[in-house]
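Thread title: Can someone regenerate the structure for this chain?

I was given the following input by a collaborator and told the matching structure tokens would be attached. They weren't. Posting the sequence so someone can regenerate them.
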Amino acid sequence: MQHCCIYIFPQIERVTVTLHNVIRITGQHIGDACRYAVAQLSHRYYVPFAIMLLLCIFLAVKAQVGQPRTSLMGWEIFSTVKFKSKYYKAYKESFLTPEFDSNLLSLEGSVIQISGHYMPLDLPDRKMIVLSRYPYSACFFCGGAGPESVIEVHFPEKAPKPKPDQVIAVQGKLKLNNTDVEHLNFILTEAEQIKP
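Best answer:
Regenerated them for you:
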């Protein structure tokens, strides 16, 4: 029994590292990673490894449940969006309209985290704020940055009111908008402020 434990415990670390590396590097799902890890195992130790594998799967799933699909990388994702000028008859004006790709569309409805500079805008909705990737002097509204650099954030209750340009972090469900010019292109709903 002691010999078995001496052999098995180092293998737990090996399988765990294998699973995490496959998931991290290739972006494969847990099932694919598990099949890869099993292929690396010796036939002699299938039962002990099966137990270890189940433990690794449990730990990997537990680590992923409830985690946002994107961390604070939201701005980098938004910066990949391409915009085209589109004329709106109702406003007799052209606006930059985003073309969302399939990768971004797959994130819609997911919980994401993002941090940004609080924009001190006079908004009629007290449950909403706007965050910018850049400070007020260089933001979309004043400094010429693109529409991919701002996000509209909706809270269930009254929104926080930080100091102008203060960086805050929030999380919420991502909503994409390419039809309503009264709202920004990137929107967080059911938002809550979190520690950066």
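The chain has two domains: 2-64, 74-194.
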